[in-house]
Design goal:
Elements (H helix, E strand, L loop, with lengths): L19 H22 L2 H16 L30 H9 L11 H20 L1 H7 L4 H16 L3 H19 L7 H4 L4 H19 L17 H12 L20 H11 L2 H9 L8 H4 L21
Helix pairs in contact: 1-2, 1-3, 2-4, 3-6, 4-5, 4-6, 6-7, 6-9, 7-9, 9-10, 9-11, 11-12
Length: 317
């Protein structure tokens, strides 16, 4: 101490393999994979281990996490936690949402599901009403987007559709019109030292939010501000830097670019806009046939009149 803020760089003491953020991320990924495996195969062993993860983290009095993030991203000598740490709640929400795939399993009872939803409701209440939660909601860049995404996702799990609709509707002017320029740039992300990563993060958040918003009849995909700001403009701006071969990224980027992380955005866009150009970006990415989105977001079908034949996806000849 005193700690020094360095944009885009993580203190190695905060990432040592068993840190809280890493464990939360693993929780979300593991629970999702196991729940999907059960949903697709019906094998109880996958549901049983997913249920164990959920009980340890959320239900067992000896190990459960308290439903708040008051101490997230604490800085020794400065604070005991801060609002921007809420962005690390992704794994928590992923795990809670994935529990829905365990319906019908003997390993996940009705009592389990009720108890998990009670935890989720307490956590959502904290996100909405705590000082840290309210401060994170005010963040204008990717933090605000990811906050909205977590709130809407939890609201849908809990059947709080009016809350989900309210947040999704507000995102038009509160997020899209603020974060995206008429030419598609995201200036609040481009000023960072990892400008591609943060542009990617925010666009993934906006696209996921637009997908969830469809469930409450809010169309974020086609929203455009009076001066032409939209999610589609942001996707089109990123397209030359994602497709194969990519154009060189002209902004500051202190780590290697991982283009395949934007595949879900272009796959969702191909569906939302019925535009083969977005799917062709996905199909051009090396290794895309092994990505889990082939199961969770299957490729759309386009007629031969509108496009050349696309690569088949898993399970097809």
């Amino acid at each position: 101490m005193p700690y020094v803020a360095r944009d885009g760089r993580v203190n190695p003491e905060a990432r040592h393999g068993t840190s809280d953020p890493e464990q939360v991320e693993r929780l979300g990924a593991m629970t999702k994979q196991l729940a999907l495996a059960y949903y697709l195969t019906g094998r109880e062993k996958y549901a049983a281990h997913a249920a164990t993860c959920l009980r340890v983290w959320f239900l067992d009095p000896a190990t459960r996490m308290t439903p708040h993030m008051e101490y997230a991203q604490a800085v020794p000598g400065v604070n005991d936690g801060r609002a921007i740490g809420i962005i690390e709640a992704g794994g928590i929400v992923e795990a809670i949402d994935s529990a829905g795939l365990l319906t019908g399993s003997a390993a996940w009872t009705t009592d389990d599901d009720v108890a998990l939803k009670h935890w989720a409701d307490d956590f959502l209440d904290w996100l909405l009403h705590s000082e840290n939660g309210k401060n994170e909601a005010k963040q204008p860049q990717n933090h605000g987007t990811m906050y909205d995404l977590r709130v809407v996702r939890l609201a849908l799990v809990l059947n709080r559709t009016e809350l989900a609709r309210e947040i999704a509707e507000a995102a038009k002017e509160r997020r899209i019109a603020v974060q995206i320029e008429p030419d598609g740039r995201q200036p609040l992300e481009l000023r960072r030292t990892k400008s591609f990563n943060y542009s990617r993060l925010n666009l993934r958040g906006l696209s996921a939010l637009a997908s969830l918003a469809e469930q409450v009849d809010i169309d974020l995909w086609h929203y455009e501000s009076t001066d032409g700001r939209s999610i589609r403009k942001a996707i089109d701006f990123m397209q030359p830097y994602v497709k194969t071969p990519p154009v060189d990224w002209p902004y500051r980027q202190i780590v290697e670019i991982n283009r395949i992380e934007l595949a879900p955005v272009f796959r969702l866009a191909a569906h939302a806009y019925s535009d083969v150009n977005y799917e062709e970006v996905v199909q051009s990415l090396p290794g895309i046939e092994r990505e889990s989105l082939q199961l969770t977001y299957p490729a759309p079908k386009f007629s031969s009149a509108t496009t050349a034949p696309l690569l088949s996806h898993p399970g097809e000849p």
